[in-house]
Design a protein that fits this description.
By secondary structure, the protein is α/β, with parallel strands linked by helices. It is about 45% helix and about 15% strand. The chain binds adenosine-5'-triphosphate (ATP) and magnesium ion (3 copies).
């Protein structure tokens, strides 16, 4: 069997052989981009190269980039445990052209790697192009020879120019352009339709690789400015490719996750290996450990609050499995076993990372049980399917339940949370605090909202990571 580590290496080798410079993954805390919560794609560290404001000694690069999508524009937190293909933390394999090759070579490379190196049968692969991108369609159909029924054109979302699954953008502003995506058909046993059809939401056809043809820089007013030289940015989920090559449907069945789920089952005492909570824990330990290793600490705002929310969700899933002991911090060891070789910075810091998690786990452990009892009582007394805002607020304020944690529990029980009521309770508390003169400027906001905003309090870290990125470069 090809391990995930082998696949990562095969990818980097393939592109090294094609004159790409293999570049190390950058930190999860973006070094040069205050608009970005966490590194969410391989291209982030090359943003200024794409924009033309930074020059490198090479025009082709390849990397396996650690990414977190748990806040900001790309947020997959709510998908974890529900789809076979989403993680909060994942590795994105990518090849990049900085004004070097463009659509034709990019498509040839991708096709060559998947059908050649990886040996995937062409008839299992489906492709999409942006509706207006005749050039890409032509390359697929006439040059590569993809069957027309396996190619679809994806247009804009209704009434929204340049908003499409096939128009990639890093954020509200910055580099963007049309893209072409490659999907893998996991077979008719799994529900779901091909890309571009109304049934596509299933997990049968899984998006594997996205090739972005970066042609524009979008400014704050939405206008597109052509980039000085068109570039290519591609991203392929390592775990998704590993699932295909290891002959399993779900990312959670690949070697790395098998190892983590086994550990999570042992540490929590869970008997049902298929329990979604084990997947969530296995997912969350990767995000949390790598964020901490990259210098983020649990906090009540900004990046640190996103981390705290993920940690607390994981701990609550352990509680749900009936675990009463510390378990989450003990997942760092098994994680380092399976990923420490590729990420020596994780292996090196494993004890420190575990210590940070242990502190947070003990701290939340003091209020989790009481909070859950309060919530259970409230749920038992519900007359409709809505958890009152006042309850969500009490959980937040007294028991340290981030609102999305309460939402996560509500969703499991097919309930909703009265978010407006929660906001009102928050606002009332702010009023009280203001009256008591606690907040000088009167501009405190719910930590939850603050977490969605670009962090303003991380200048120290920015400095730290800029230096670090230099060391890694
Ligand atoms: P999806 O539509 O499945 O949510 P995406 O279109 O949001 O994926 P891209 O932004 O195109 O993803 O990222 C490039 C590639 O990274 C994807 O094709 C996929 O293989 C992988 N990827 C994206 N998000 C995740 C995730 N949350 N977990 C694991 N892999 C992911
Ligand atoms: Mg997505
Ligand atoms: Mg997609
Ligand atoms: Mg995509």
């Amino acid at each position: 069997m090809k391990t995930t580590a082998d696949i990562r290496q095969a990818f980097l080798d393939f592109f090294a052989e094609r004159e790409h410079r293999v570049v190390a993954s950058s930190s999860l805390v973006p070094a040069n981009d205050p608009t970005l919560l966490f590194t969410n794609a391989g291209m982030n560290q090359f943003k200024d190269v794409f924009l033309g404001s930074e020059k490198r000694a090479y025009t082709r690069a390849a990397s396996s980039q650690r990414c977190v999508r748990a806040g900001g524009k790309h947020n997959d937190l709510e998908n974890v445990g529900y789809t076979a293909r989403h993680h909060t933390f994942f590795e994105m394999l990518g090849n990049f052209s900085f004004g070097d090759y463009f659509k034709k070579e990019a498509i040839e490379f991708a096709w060559g790697f998947l059908t050649g190196t990886c040996g995937l049968p062409p008839e299992k692969l489906w492709v999409t192009v942006y509706a207006d991108d005749d050039e890409a369609a032509e390359i697929w159909l006439n040059h590569i020879g993809v069957e027309p029924e396996r190619l679809s054109r994806i247009g804009d979302k209704p009434g929204k120019r340049y908003e499409s699954d096939n128009f990639w953008a890093m954020g509200e502003t910055g580099p963007c352009g049309p893209c072409t995506e490659i999907f893998y058909d996991h077979g008719p046993e799994i529900p779901g339709g091909p890309p571009g059809t109304p049934e596509e939401d299933g997990d049968r056809y899984i998006e594997v690789w996205n090739l972005v043809f970066m042609q524009f820089d979008r400014s704050a007013d939405g206008t597109l400015h052509p980039l000085p030289a068109p570039c290519v940015d591609t991203g392929m989920g390592l775990e998704r490719l590993a699932a295909i090559l290891q002959g399993v449907h779900s990312n959670y069945q690949i070697d790395v996750f098998e190892h983590l789920i086994t550990a999570a089952a042992r540490l929590t005492g869970a008997t049902d290996r298929d329990a979604p909570s084990l997947k969530v824990i296995a997912d969350h330990i990767r995000a949390c450990a790598f964020l901490i290793a990259d210098g983020v600490l649990p906090a009540n705002d900004g990046r640190g609050y996103v981390l705290r929310r993920i940690i607390r969700r994981a701990i609550r899933h352990g509680y749900k499995l009936g675990c009463e002991d510390l378990f989450f911090c003990k997942m760092v060891g098994p994680l380092a076993e399976v990923m420490g070789e590729a990420y020596p910075e994780l292996a090196r810091q494993r004890d420190d990372v575990a210590a940070v998690l242990e502190r947070e786990e003990r701290r939340f452990g003091e209020t989790l049980d009481q909070g859950m009892k309060l919530l259970e009582q409230a749920i038992a007394g519900l007359e409709d399917a809505v958890i009152p805002g006042s309850v969500a607020f009490k959980l937040y304020d007294t028991f340290g339940f981030p609102i999305d944690l309460t939402r996560d529990i509500a969703r499991e029980r097919e309930l909703e949370v009265d978010e407006a009521g929660f906001e009102q309770a928050m606002e009332a508390q702010r009023e009280r605090a203001r009256a008591a003169g606690q907040f000088g400027g009167g501009d405190a906001m719910p930590a939850d909202l603050a977490a969605e905003l670009p962090a303003t309090d991380f200048l120290g870290y920015t400095q730290h990571f800029a230096e670090r990125a230099e060391l890694l470069a």
